[in-house]
Every structure is written in C-alpha cells, then in structure tokens.
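Format notes (please read before filing issues)

Several people have asked whether sequences and structure tokens are stored in separate files. They are not. Every record keeps both together, in the order shown below: the sequence lines, then the token lines. Line labels are part of the format and must not be stripped during preprocessing.
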Amino acid sequence: MPESLIIDNLHASGTTSASAPLPVLTGVSLSVQPGEFVALIGGSGSGKTITAMSAMQLLPPQLAVTSGSIRLGKLELTLATENQLNQMRGGRMGMLFQQPKRMFNPRMTIGAHLREPLRLHGKLRGHAAEAQVISLLAEVGLPDPAWCAKAYPHQLSGGMAQRAMTAVALAGQPDILIADEPTSALDKSLEGQILSLIDSQRRDRGLGVLYITHNIATVAAFADRIFVMKNGRIIESGPTAQVLSNPQSDETKHLLNASSLSASSTGHTSTNAPKVLTVDGASKAFRMGRGRKKAVLSNVSLSLHRGEILGILGQSGSGKSTLARSIVGLEELDSGHITHTSGGNGSESAAVGPKVQLVFQEPHDSFDPRMKLRTSLEAPLLRHTKITAADRRERVERVTNEVGLDSRLLDHRPGQCSGGQLQRMAIARALLLEPDVLICDEATSALDALSQRRILDLLLRLHKERGLSLMIISHDMAIIQHMCNRVAVIFEGQLVELAATDEFFKTPRHAHSQELVAVSAPLWPLPNIGYGQLPAPNVL
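Then the structure lines:
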C-alpha cells in the first residue's frame, strides 16, 4: 500500500562561522497523498530545494532542521536511523535532483547507477537487472539505451543526464517521488514525455509526486494542488484551478505573468551586416571505446551577423552544446573551422579569443567550489586586462548588480548559492570582458520565471545599446520566439533548417522543425493577470 509524505510546521536554519543561525525554512507544512501530484513553486532561493533535501534528510552540514515533523507513512524521518534512511532513499522515496551530473558518480556507468537500486530495492540481478536497465532508459526517452547504459555521466548531454536520473529515481518503485526541476534541461517534447511518464506512474500504481519548479506552466495540466513559496515560507496553496484562476498573493501573480513570453520587437538583422562569427563544415565525433565513435556534429555551417540574435534549437543530445564548446575552443573539431571577425571590422581570426564568451548550461560546473565568487569573476579581468584592483572591484560589482544580484553574494562560495543565483553570476562573468559575441547555452534554464525575464530583458538591452551579437541555444520555443532574429535547427548533429524567426514559426519546413513547433503550445492556458511591472529582484 503506497504511503503518504507529511511535512508539518518544518523549521530549518543555516549557520556560518561569521553569523548567528539564520532561518531558511519557517513553518513549512504540506502533504503528498498516494496518487497525488503536488507542485511546489517559487523563485530561486525561495526554499524549494531545501524543503526537498529536508524530506530526504540530505541537508548539507551548514543547514539543519530545528523543529517540525517529516513523516513517510509511520516513519518519522527526523528521528530515523541511518540504516532506516538508507532503506528509504531510492526505495520508498526517490528523488530527481536539479543538477543530475553533480549527483552521478563520475567513475560509474549509467547502467551501474541503475543496477544499484534494482538490486537493493527490487532484488533484481543478472540478466533480469540488465533487461530492466535497458527498459527504464528506453522508457525515459533515451534514443540508444544500450549505449547509454555503458556511458559515463560526462558523456551525456545535460538533457540526457536528466532523463537517466529520472530512470534511476523510478528504478526502486518508490511510493513518493520528489522531482526538483527535473525538466529544466529538456525540450518541450521530452518534457511532456517525462511528465506523462511520472503521471502514468502515479495513476497506475499510486505514486505520490512532489514536483518542484519555478514554472507554473510546466505542471499546470498535471498538478492536483499547488503550494507557492517565498523566503522559506508557504505563502499560498490550493487546488490548481483555483490558484491559477484566482491567485491571492503578489508572488503568484508575478510568477503567472512571467510565465508567458511574447514575440520580441528585435526586428530583422540584415544578412548584409558584417559577419562576426562563421562556422564552416564543423564535424565532431566522440570516441566510445573499442574503436567505436558517436557523431555529434556533421558538417554544420552557419554564420552570425553583427547585432544579430541567432537561436539554436534542438532536442537534448542533438549537438547544440558541443557546437558552443567548439566555437570557444573547448572542443577540437575533427574537421571544419570557426572564424571570428572582431567587431565586424574585417579583422578575421581563427582563434575567437576573449571577445566571444560562453555562458554554460550547468552553472555549478562553471565555478571552482573552493573559491569565492569575487575571485572567480576577477580572474578573467586579471588575465585579459591591465586595470587596477579598484577598477576590477568596481566593474565586478557593477555587472553583478546589472544581472539582478546583490554584490554581497560575491563573498560567498558557489555552494552557498541557489542554482538561479549562480547562473546569473555565470552571465555576469561572461559580460565582464565586454564581448562582441555572447553564446548562451541554456543560460536561463535554471532560473525562475521572474529571473529569466530579467535576464532576457538584460540581454535584449545589451544587444540594442552595444550591438552585441547573441547566439541563444535553447530548447524553449518561447525564448527563441521572444529573442531571436533567425532560427537554426540541429537534429542528430546536422543543421536541418535555417530561417527567419517569424517564417520558421509560421511554416517550418523540416519534419523535426514541424514537431518542435507543434509541441511548443502550452499545456494549460495561463491567465493574463495584468499585474503590471515585475518586482525588484530578491537579491539574496
């Protein structure tokens, strides 16, 4: 018989060597019944992930539950022994983490990660376990399950890693599944597939789901109830239809407004404008052992014009991130070449240099966890400029404020920041050298809707004021339509379509493009609250 999860009046606080304990959760109460889909929604830093980690009893050392109750069936988790918790984790309660690559053991294959819960909680071994590994990987939409089972985490794209983590979380047949932003790295088609899989599990066998997200539109069609968090508190809750149609709190209204992006007025950049970046015949294959290779880019050619915003669309694993990494020299092409024309002035160079900057998809992997953020942001200025220490400090703090963060965060380490805060820091670092070209690889996928809107508005402002050329790599069709002049579609490593944005969305030509446009419509018609301007950033 499936069991329920009940969190009652939960309080948690954080401690540092420099200050007294600070509250991070205050009186949080919610429940997930068997077969129920509960959505926990809020901006970055609101306390959603800490609530999830409290339920799993996996809080980091600097955080602790100070009072309240967390019960899974009859088991009080705050008083459970380590042996009881180990039996519960991955068995009675599974969790999908926000940053899957950070949670995988880099020395274990994906298949080995899956065999562990199958052995411990399903008593499966040998051929039965191997068959179930392949079945689970196929069920979450991975195109080559046999290869993925033998692959290591670093060999997967962000979206592929998230799907593999979904398979691991479901392998132990849990009663409760806690899903922390499980589809933020996935395109709409795969997002719908994962949500439908979770939904079928809860309908078929009574799985209870606590789904954590910053995007109300993601779960509107699936959730039975919605809880809205801000500053470590539940500020609104109720049945989904009630919360969506009649939101009571300002935060909920702002989240609803920010979930809808309209087409931008960026206009069309003339193809006669000078080219600032050219990719010619780019091909790349990864070695998979025993002489096997997996092609990830095949003869891709495209160009970016001065002042243009070019969108790169494609499913996870299509080669988008490999293309971005190749442009900035982090991957060596097997064939083809990439050239940068500085400022569109005709000075062409095969080495793109500091004037082409990349904002990575996974911000936690972009920073040294041992260094304060100020040190990480000053590093490119030390290497590429000769400005004084005072000027470095001023520029770092100015750009930090420009992306909606308080400069006090610069004295924190990466592990002390939420995913959204850290992604904004990654964008700030990329802007410090005032690049001609900024490549954003899913740069807003970790952000809540409010922060995402601010970052997109910031990028549009920089584009207009400085003629900044942007390459926006995303699976989010709304972002592409809102931001871009042209759209390039990559499918299985090949460029299959390149068109003006309005033309692409009206009459996509390639079959894969047509599929992407078809699934981009929202699952639920979100109301237009008409609440006005976005609020000031919640900087800390």
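For reference, the curators noted about this record: Residues 288 and 294 are 7 Å apart (CA to CA). The radius of gyration is 23 Å.
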